[in-house]
Amino acid sequence: MSDAGSGVDPQQVAVVGSGPSGFYAAEALLKSGRTINVDLIERLPAPFGLVRYGVAPDHPKLKEAILVYQVIARLPRFALLGNVTVGRDVSVEELLAHYHAVVLTCGAETDRRLGVPGEDLAGSHTATEFVAWYNGHPEYRDRQFDLSAEVVVIVGQGNVAADVCRILAKSVDELRSTDIAEHALDALAASRVREIHVIGRRGPAQAKFTNKELKELGELANCAAEVDPGALALNAQSRAELEAKANFVSAKNVEILREFASGARGGKPRRLILHFLKSPVQLAGAGRLQQVVLERNRLEGASFQQVARGTGQTENLACGLLFRSIGYGGVPIPGVPFDPKRGVIPTRDGRVVDAADVPIPGLYAAGWIKRGPTGIIGTNRADSVATVKSLLADLPSARESRMGSSGLAPLLEARGVRPVRYDDWEAINAEEVARGAPKGKPREKFTRVDEMLKCLERIGQPLS
Ligand SMILES: Cc1cc2nc3c(=O)[nH]c(=O)nc-3n(C[C@H](O)[C@H](O)[C@H](O)COP(=O)(O)OP(=O)(O)OC[C@H]3O[C@@H](n4cnc5c(N)ncnc54)[C@H](O)[C@@H]3O)c2cc1C
Ligand SMILES: NC(=O)c1ccc[n+]([C@@H]2O[C@H](COP(=O)([O-])OP(=O)(O)OC[C@H]3O[C@@H](n4cnc5c(N)ncnc54)[C@H](OP(=O)(O)O)[C@@H]3O)[C@@H](O)[C@H]2O)c1
User: Fold this and answer.
1) 367 lines ligand 2 (CB under 6 A)
2) Per-state percent for the chain, helix, strand, coil, to nearest 5
3) Separation of CA 207 and ligand 2 centre (Å)
4) Distance (Å) of CA 365 to CA 289, 302, 443
5) Residues in contact with 394: Cβ distance below 8 Å, sequence separation at least 6, in sequence order
6) Which of 64, 109, 133, 196 is packed most tightly, with the most Cβ within 10 A?
7) How confident is the model over 176-203, as pLDDT tens digits?
8) If you measure from the C-alpha of residue 107 to the centroid of ligand 1, how many angstroms do you get, rounded to a whole number?
């Protein structure tokens, strides 16, 4: 297919996953100065990845990244193919046959495991599930969390743990005007949670919270943040870590924790207690979670390399609900190399490499599936730009033409897969916003794929 008037065949690139790294990769390709068609393939009918299904509903400012993605989606030569799962509806091999290059930006959708007895007891969940549930992710919509438990434990001290804390600690009135899913708001309205224990395996100087997120935990209207002042004693290596200029975030975190330790509870009905140097070694209960056994740790190693080592001393903490918030992990895509230890697709300069470290022609990765599950939304931009730089360097200027989406369409049709285009998504989006308006919410999300597709039929925009 020649570009009208230019005599140049556009290059065809498929980007798999419509989270931040997918949109930033699309932007870098579309603004590269080359004539490239970009198809952004997404397994859900709704785009934006963790910006829609991860970022906490009470942090609406952070969702404003979507405004940038809306502009990218309107660039000439951009197309969304939502409701298409790569590895199920179409293989990577088939994509490589129809596109000059494929960029995998499919994120890190699963959780890491603690590896302790009782981890799978009823009442023990991952933060991944809880976050996806309150954000209305269709695959997690029917999960159940026993919020009749008065004591909840969260393992891990990163920003995801902070998000989970806030959702459990805030009153329903504080959450009512956010885009939290209706089913979650209803369940949280009946919550009896009174105590939230947040467990860190290392010390206060190693907690992974950013300052703003930690400080916010001390400013909750209905919940007092508490730390045992004794838990803030630091060893020499941790003190040295805090003195390093580049480590100002940790130094500030410790300052904030000192404020928590000296603060009064102020009659707030809920408590949030931060623990340090403790690891769960067993989750126990008759049929369901009743207590977690915590082992006290000490730190070993040089500054910035300190690891937690168990001391053999244990304590029991009675609880009815536990969330493991110890990081995400990637999910392998059939036919694509995968490093199970790191939970990522192995790459060199963004090029996917095989077991012998040799790049697979035409295959690239960016974002969490390339780097692992760290970094904020903006971190993914430079990452995607770097991957696209490699891709553009590899794309030969004289090349055989590829059919791109016009080659993919009959294949998907034969398999009964109907892609959701960006216009379709905009229609779903408008419906969600309209559903939210009477409740004072920015949107009421559809939480089932069927509902989204039926919405298109109802408004006379059925998928072809
Ligand atoms: C709970 C949580 C809260 C966060 N909050 C913030 C915040 O407030 N501020 C901030 O800056 N950062 C936040 N982050 C970090 C930020 O969300 C990530 O840096 C970013 O989303 C990673 O982008 P990504 O595109 O690599 O992955 P994702 O955002 O996960 O996008 C991956 C996309 O790929 C799709 N996909 C997966 N597999 C397939 C397949 N086989 N076929 C087709 N599509 C597929 C998924 O459906 C998804 O849409 C948060 C992260 C989490 C986990
Ligand atoms: N508002 C925001 O900007 C926002 C919100 C949410 C998420 N995010 C970002 O998204 C990324 C992911 O966040 P995250 O909270 O999932 O990850 P994270 O920041 O890496 O935190 C993971 C936590 O789990 C602990 N941990 C890991 N393995 C453990 C084990 N086996 N036992 C006990 N504890 C264990 C880690 O401790 P160690 O340090 O000892 O490993 C750490 O405290 C981060 O970059 C985060 O900043 C940002």
Assistant:
1) no
2) 35, 20, 40
3) 9
4) 39, 34, 32
5) 101, 351, 361, 362
6) 196
7) 999 999 999 999 999 999 999 999 999 9
8) 5
